[in-house]
Records
---
Amino acid sequence: MTVTELLSPAGNLEKLKVASLYGADAVYCGGQQFGLRAASDNFSLQELEEGIAFAHAHGTKVYVVLNAFLHDSDLNELPGFVEDIESLGVDAVIVSDSGVVEVVKNRSKLPIHLSTQASCLNRYSAQLWKKHGVSRVVLGREVSIQEAAEIKKSTGLEVEIFIHGSMCMAYSGNCVISNYTQGRDSNRGGCAHSCRFEYSLDSQDYEKKNAYFMSSKDLQGIRFLKDCVDLGIDSLKVEGRMKTHHYVGTISKVYSEALQFYREHGHFLSEQMLHWESELAKVSGRDGGAWNMTAEAAGDSIFNKRETNEESHNLAGVVQQVFDNEIVIEVRKAFDRHDKLELIPFKGDIQNLSLSRILSLNGLDIERTNPGTLVRIPFSGTAAAMNIIRIENRL
Amino acid sequence: MKRILTLKKMKDLNAAIALAPDELLIDTTLLSRTGEITLRELSQIINQNWGQTKLILNWDILMTDKLINTIILEVEKIQWEMFSAIRVQDLGALEWLYQKRPEYPIHLNLETGHHNRVAIKSHLDLFPSIKRVVLSQELESSTLQEYLKELEVESEILVLGSTLLFYTPRHLVTPLYELAADESIQVLATSEESPHKGFPILENRHGTFMFNIKDHCLLDHVAELESWGMTAIRIDLPLDENFELIKMALDLCQNFNGERFEIFKAKYPRQLSKAFYRSNKSDVLFKKLKNAHLASVDQGVLGAVVEQRKEHYTALKLKSEIKKADLPLKAKLLTTDGKWIEVSVKSLRNARGEDVDFLQKDEIALLNPLRKASVKALLCKEE
């Protein structure tokens, strides 16, 4: 029987640890080349080695993305990189380009997962990629859960679908707006997110309109976890290597708890589902929905609004060290003693953080913290390094 | 070299016959992204006297599993023998065709996501029925020249027509105007966040398509493409409304003349571009988004600066153990702007400010203030 895997993003080494500690079964991350997130921190080989050791010690697999569509000159350094990451113990690579598939096959024994960027949408396409040697297909976001299950059944391949996060509006790999308008190859990590711009639309036959008509709402598939598990989907992917620790930790915690609950009980409780959804709402930006997971995404999947940072909660900091009755926090967003802070444990209930005092590392009382500093806070609950502290934004 | 035109509408049929291309790509409503010819109308097209013109059926839509299973029922009814080949872009269509008729000639459209020879060859090795590959507009001329030396199948490239920038199956424009999703609509889109204005947008039953404001034109490079071994060139414009322009373009393809090309460009209704033909540097700009200095350091890192309080301490998140017994310790600081500064570590305290004999990896160490330290700078061992 398939045990559905939760696959979380790891934009850097710290986020890899966060994802692993908060319950991800596997993480995906990029090296300094060959991926699609050029602006993400990504991993040096030393960081990758440390990340793999950490993840494996916590029962988490590590997949490395090599999912850019490479030009010939980009291929020169790929064989050496593939050999390096295989020697580090990477569990699989995620690839879009059939040329990269060939290099990985020829230079390693690494399992190959076909990236969603290849827009594998149907069983015949999956059969073709099986001939190329891939063991798993990350299906296009246009594919429903039911279709994914049928593709798995007809090919024998593992199937992975997206469960949460931002979505490309275009068929993945089929948007080159950045290439032609900004000279940045979207399929080699340079996407300029032109789909999030506001456009004015002119037509001879209709009135002029201003709209964010190419911007997609986010995916949020928690209500369909049951179908994913029951239909044997092998892996559920969370988008977001560029996103914060808060996002990575919260999504990993919520989905892993939900999957665990369903494995143990075979059902969900509506009250619990509401709680999980309210937790997800604290890190979601663009009105999540299931969209193509169940039916063709319609007009209500367009996020026709300007992007804002009006989230109910933000990352206040990350616990760096725990002493008796005290924690040391690396501050990411300024707060003072009147703010409402909560500590998100790896497992279990959220804990309120009472800010009776805030101290600098040399023991002086602080009225208001600054991002990029370390502070000590009295705390008598259970905490661990890498716990996330979130702040409720004041209205 | 074969000259290819595209027939998208029945009203262009007479123009297609009159222009007499070597090949005519047939875009149907069912199988192609922007075609408007029904399958029923195919027989009318097939029954024309085409002389030397060969007909190619274009199947370039991308398909989910449900859609392809519906579509293949229709494709099975088509008289394939009336076409010289079928052109596909969805690799699922390639696989299905090959399973169904392993000998039937296929033209594989590799305009998207195939920018290295290993990738192109990988498909050719698996599918002997691929008789032609359609190459990407993003390839530089020097790369094309190299490919054409090696390719053992026919090759094709667009030399005149619009460039597709964005393809989604979602209906993005009709909801704004409260129209039914199966209606077709064309608009021009302009964003204040982009210097380019008036991107043509088309929405039809297959989804929404955005095209570049400039059309692609390599008419002045056809001779060199032919000399390198390009087998076919394609002009992709509506035939009837551009009849005279297409005639000029076809003539320029065979007998290029600079003066007539200038006249052609003056008459052309949109701006023209060679895009990446001369050089493709589309991976240069975004490499600057990362801090290359810090990304390049892999060995000997003691820790990363997480806080700097001048005259009080430098706080370090340790990457490796540090001992009081090793102090004073000569070290190097790699600043965020890439400079190496020699520093000396003289004191060691924990995050509570307590003197300690050693601290482990991942703990916070308070050191004496290190000059030029700032958050994210790296402290490294002296080699």
---
Amino acid sequence: MELRRYIGRRLVQIVIIFFVILTVLFLLFRLAPGDPVSRMIDPNLTPEDAALLIKEFGLDQPLWMQYLYYLKNFFTGHFGFSFHYGQPVVQIIGDRLPNTILLFTTSIILSALVGIFLGKIASWHKGKKTDTFMTLSALVTHTFFLPWLALIMIWVFAYKLDWFPITGMISEEIWLDPEACLWTKALDVLHHMILPLATLFLIHFGSYLLIMRSSMLDTLKEDYIVTGRAKGLPEKVIRNHHAAPNAALPVVTSVGLSLAFSINGGALTETVFTWPGIGRELVFSVSHNDYPLAQASFLLIAIVVLLSNLVVDILYAYLDPRIRY
Amino acid sequence: MTREIIKVTVFNNDIGLSERFHWIGRLLEGWSIYKKNLLGKIGLTLLFLFALMALCSFIPPLVNPMYQPMAGVDPDISYSVGPSMRHWLGTDFMGRDILSQLLAGARIAFMVGVSAAFMSVFLGTVIGMIAGYAGRFTDNLLMRLADMIMVMPALLVLLMLAALFGQLSIWFIVLFIALFRWPGVSRVIRAQTLSLKHRPFVEAARVSGASHLRIIFRHIMPNVLPLSFLYMTFQVTSAIIVEAALAFLGFGDPGTVSWGMMLQWVWKTGHMFRAPYWLLPPGICISLITLSFYMLGRAMDEVLDPRLRKEGGTD
């Protein structure tokens, strides 16, 4: 019951935060130097079409009316047309969203799980060679500059060794081939995904490893661990069933705290690997002054960040019954 | 939540009773602990080397104007060539010297990192102390604001601003990074302030009629400053990364040479498969400078946090 109330409160908070973001974005678009109309209307449109769009977005109205139009358009999914693609923005974004979610969630879950697992082992061998090696490599990989690591990965594994494709998410000849079954297509996507996934994984698992290690060391000093030992339980049971689940809680928190960081990383990875996701679309639209697309991508990323924060919070409340907010 | 609790319990071990000038002794003691830390030593050495690089950045342009990082072009070369006696690390696509760009990049990295970190830690400390000390409505308001900023990906927000306002100057970028990075600091400082607020020495100051401002800046601030310093090292890291990433995407200040911008040139001009002498140095530099600030931070963490020290071990 209390958990449900907590989630409800978090939801209200998230909605408020989102409205603030929505409003700030609106103001920025109107107050930035230059003509606000030119930001929503493609300069290449015929005057009639432009007039139609100006009417739809209420750009000829006073500012507060524009705001109401803006909210209405947001909730009905009218973001205008992309200057570059000439398609409705919603359609483009809708195409890209699954790709981003696929790469992003896989990388976070994978790096958290591996980080937890390796951190557990490192803490168990504290002070020995295994621990030193793991801690050091976690520190080093964690501080790699992400776009550079991505370039190096492409250079070594895609260009020199030619194991993986250099860019993109699918090979056209496979997807256009009517004979190809679903499995070949899935394998093709996986083949394209390995390098970006490995890059994100290398950057992220280190911090989870370090957190898990120190949290595990704290947990091993708890009374219930001493009790377990006194009862004569095997060390393996103590480590895997008594210590690890509790020690993993701070990792969940840190996943939440580092979400913004991961989203930045996701956008950079998508850009370098030309993975057709929202982050890349945002970077692309910003470089090409495609304002409607930039605005919508940004809002969508904000939604993704806020919702994944909520998911992490719920997960945490669920995993740790001691904590009630 | 847990992190705050940990920090609070850790810092309860009375840095609160500091006497005037006692800090020199504390500093020496801290240094003697720090010296034993391997990672700390490596980090400090690396940082020293980077500082040396930044200082040396003034030399090449004096030797020959063609070594100017942005404007200097080798009159005989108009494409990228590998290392030679004339250009130790080779040249970029228009014949500019890579080594002098790399040295100038060190200067920019320090400037961006340290100034953004200083500003964000300053903001975070002041806001954290006010929130913790004032409590109730002010606290709630400031912390919700912090929550909100904390979930925003700074890089993408800066991208949006670049789209709307055109080229961003390096100082605007620094200022913005600072505005995005204070919440993490302020949370920790707030927790620390909460634990200090009801200590006898604060009560005593209040009873003897000290104003709120005096209590905050005179009595609470000296006790949270060590924590602020610790956070500064981590802030430097993230500031350098954000600036580099922004420059890499092509939205850096066009008037400065940063390592991120060098990487962007390699990438955009399609030299990444052909010119390892150009691709490797800036990336290694960004990664190493972040690593060394990070190691510095971890070592300082150990100095400030006796619990970590007892564990000893490898890090």
